[in-house]
Amino acid sequence: MLQQADALEDIYLKVLSGETPDRDDIVFMYEGADLNSLGEVARSLAGKISGRYVSFVSNMILNYTNICNVRCNFCAFYRTGSEPDSYTLTKEQVVEKISQYYNNFGIRQLLIQGGVNPSLPLSYYTDLFSLIHEKFPDLGIHGLSTSEISFISRKEHISISETISLLAESGLESIPGAGAEIFSADVRKILGRPLNSGDDWLKVMEEAHKLGVRSSATMMFGHVEEAYHKADHLLSLVRLQKKYNGFMSFTPWNFEPGNTELQKKGLVQYRAGGAEVLRNIAISRIVLNNAIPVVQSSWLTNGMQMGQMAVLFGANDWGGTIYDEKVIPATGKQVGNLRKELIVNSLSQIGMYPVERDNLYRVVKYYSQ
């Protein structure tokens, strides 16, 4: 136990000096470090970055289509297009959906993503984003996965850079981190992801960052990955961040196996437990530290109480209110909607100071301390 404590202390001192933990350090934290000690180190580092302030955004998720030709083994949301519940929203339907939450809850971020729908041209997205920006000018569009952007590029026979530029000109403000999963090709093969899709994710994000389009980053854990896969994933993000500083935040989220091919094949039966969730939050904070200073709590897949615990283990952003999410409920797990008042109360309960932000992490409102 003393050796473990000494090893973690060495990692902590390394991080304080501005170094990034190496692969062996990260594997040790996953496999050998005491969880509570990890939490103490992570919370200390979060305190140095943002004190007791924890941000959140009032947002909604718009899943504009569930038709997808990728068909990942970990997804219960996609449809091939032949099923009766397949759908693609029209521009008018999108505006109607946004209006409900924009007018009633003052949302500031629209997270828009669906599937890789082969029938949709680039003009669907540019026209849609232009209309959203016209109708709701102060609503930040946080849109599309790297898979969607890559497919649009191939379909239109234009470069990734040009695709992102055209999307940004029409109103896209930032790109979400969906599709990162675990970058390892071996893991992605089991997950049913296309060959080289991990490298493609990094390449699309790099092109976006070169253009000044910022993004978030993610990692999906709790399936078939090993500790060293997660270590390599985190270090890949740090390397890219050092080039352009384009990542605004990082969210580690746990795989939900319900109704997925991985569950049906017996590869993953149960979701990750609370201890594993907190370990991933803490390690993310320790590894990313000032490189990606915002770590989200991922309350959506873990509930309010685990959201609070995640903050105590190093997260400094709650995430969003998340109205109208449809992907996770497809696994059988109900998440519901969350009003900002509940977030403010939950953060206040654990001695933190809630801060409302916009899509680009600019402060909108400080709540009473």
Structure characterization notes:
The chain contains 14 helices and ten strands. It has a single domain (35-366), classed as Aldolase class I (TIM Barrel, Alpha-Beta Barrel), CATH 3.20.20. The strands form two sheets. Strands 2-3-4-5-6-7 form a six-stranded parallel β-sheet. Strands 8-1-9-10 form a four-stranded mixed β-sheet. It is 47% helix and 14% strand. The protein is globular and about 60 Å long. α4 (91-105) links the parallel β2 (59-62) and β3 (109-112). The chain is an alpha/beta fold. The longest helix is centred in the middle third of the chain and has 18 residues, at 227-244.
Short description:
With 369 residues, the chain is an alpha/beta fold.
Question: Which quaternary structure do these chains form?
Answer: single chain
Largest sheet: 6 strands, parallel
Q: Estimate the global geometry from the Cα principal axes.
A: globular
Radius of gyration: 20 Å
Structural class by SSE content: alpha/beta
Number of helices: 14
Mean of residue pLDDT? 89
Could you list the spans in which at least 5 consecutive residues all have pLDDT below 50?
A: 325-335
Q: What do we call the CATH topology?
A: TIM Barrel
Percentage of residues in helical conformation: 40-55%
End-to-end separation in angstroms reads: 39 Å
Q: For the record, what CATH class applies? A: Alpha Beta
Q: What do we call the CATH homologous superfamily?
A: Aldolase class I
- Spatial strand order of the main sheet: 2-3-4-5-6-7
Q: What is the correct CATH architecture?
A: Alpha-Beta Barrel
Number of strands: 10
Note the beta-strand portion.
5-15%
**Helix/strand order, N-terminal first:** HHHEEHEHEHHEHHEHEHHHEHEE
The total domain count is 1
